[in-house]
TrEMBL record:
It comes from Anaeromassilibacillus senegalensis. The lineage of its organism: Bacteria, Bacillati, Bacillota, Clostridia, Eubacteriales. Coiled coil: none annotated. HAMAP family: Dala_Dala_lig. Keywords: ATP-binding, Cell shape, Cell wall biogenesis/degradation, Cytoplasm, Ligase, Magnesium, Manganese, Metal-binding, Nucleotide-binding, Peptidoglycan synthesis. InterPro entries: ATP-grasp, ATP_grasp_subdomain_1, D-Ala_lig_Van_CS, D_ala_D_ala, Dala_Dala_lig_C, Dala_Dala_lig_N, PreATP-grasp_dom_sf. Its main location: cytoplasm. Its EC number is 6.3.2.4. Transmembrane segments: none annotated. This is D-alanine--D-alanine ligase.
Length: 359
């Protein structure tokens, strides 16, 4: 078989830039160099694109952007180019053909459909969800509404635009107190990695929480707090042909599963499989695939749930179209536990990109 050229895109103009560096380092290390030629394209936090020819350590340590050989480079939207346009030192430009793009970008501008639109224009196959599915899953208000219409159980919620709150905060605060039981979770509709999320037990503290969320997005979601286990299911495959992994569980260390737990402290404990009755785990797997197909996901997504302590109700929390992907992240660990090692998982994802029929 001919070697395929895989363009791994890392970094990104997102609050989850650092998380991407961790996920992408791990992916680059685990891609089989016998089968793939790897091209690394970095995007700085302020949105500049560079073809990076240094080693993985430079990505891990976030020093890659200073590498002297970096060249400005971008994916051409022109279908005839089918690759990267690289601006060379002598003022000319060159083209590097790409067989498949592997975007390892979390959050805004990477997981929300924006860059997927460019991939679509380029005609180059890419790993993961398309523009629409990415955008839908990224926006917690939109995803909630669509899933609610399919009778998928979720926390009671409401959403509003931050500028409406700025214009009449009291009215919105009253509505929250009238409709939802405290504690509530206040979240930016479009964010990730728990950035900008606050658990609010006291209505007096709503205002500060909403203002914080508003710093991260123009749309805000408020949800009733769920008391229960936090569990996750990894879905793999293109829409209609996807499979669910076994279910994993997070034993959060802090008040909730926050950014530091996820990436810094290593404090959160993972239980694989989750501590659940088999029927509940099966219900989660089925619901995960149903939600995945409904929102039009391709390639991969991690579908997150709560299972309530009292009634053992399965409640969908969110769908992450580009979940954390270090070797200790839940998504690859769940597949590992199903007998799909990390390197093989990457090949399956690339396979999905190459066989997707919507391009
Ligand atoms: N409705 C809720 N009830 C209880 N805990 C919640 C709720 N919403 C969020 N959390 C907690 O906050 C964390 C982050 O929220 P989440 O909606 O998953 O946002 P993110 O996209 O940042 O991961 C969750 O992993 C969970 O620990
Ligand atoms: Mg989450």
């Amino acid at each position: 078989m001919m070697k395929k050229t895989v363009c791994v895109i890392f970094g990104g103009a997102s609050s989850e830039y650092e998380v991407s560096l961790m996920s992408s380092s791990s992916i680059i290390r685990n891609l089989d160099s016998e089968k793939f030629d790897i091209v690394t394209l970095g995007i700085t936090k302020d949105g500049r694109w560079f073809l990076y020819s240094g080693d993985v350590a430079g990505i891990e340590s976030n020093t890659w952007a200073e590498h002297p050989d970096n060249r400005p480079a971008f994916i051409s939207p022109d279908k005839g180019t089918s690759g990267l346009v690289i601006l060379e030192k002598d003022g000319g430009c060159s083209i590097r053909k790409i067989d498949v793009i592997f975007p390892v970008l979390h959050g805004k501008n990477g997981e929300d459909g924006t860059i997927q639109g460019l991939f679509q224009l380029s005609g180059i196959p890419y790993v993961g969800c398309d523009t629409a599915a990415s955008a839908i899953c990224m926006d917690k208000a939109v995803a909630h509404s669509l899933l609610a219409s399919a009778n998928i159980e979720q926390a009671h919620y409401l959403w509003f635009y931050a500028d409406r709150y700025a214009a009449n905060g009291e009215k919105i605060r009253n509505k929250i107190s009238a409709r939802l039981n405290f504690p509530v979770f206040v979240k930016p509709a479009n964010a990730g990695s728990s950035v900008g999320i606050t658990k609010v037990s006291d209505p007096e503290k709503l205002d500060a929480a909403i203002r914080l969320a508003a710093e991260n997005d123009s749309k805000i979601v408020v949800e009733e707090g769920i008391v229960g286990q936090e569990v996750e299911c990894a879905v793999l495959g293109n829409r209609g042909r996807s499979e669910a992994s076994i279910v994993g569980e997070i034993g959060a260390a802090a008040e909730f599963y926050d950014y530091d737990d996820k990436y810094k402290n290593g404090a959160a404990q993972l239980f694989i499989p989750a501590r659940l009755d088999p029927e509940i785990a099966e219900e989660i797997r089925k619901t995960a695939v149903r939600a995945y197909n409904l929102l039009g996901c391709d390639g991969l997504s991690r579908v997150d749930f709560f299972v309530t302590t009292k009634e053992k109700k399965v409640i969908l929390n969110e769908i992450n179209t580009l979940p954390g992907f270090t070797s200790i992240s839940m998504y690859p660990k769940l597949w590992g536990a199903c007998g799909v090692p990390y390197g093989e998982l990457l090949e399956k994802l690339i396979g999905c990109a190459l066989t997707r029929d919507t391009l």
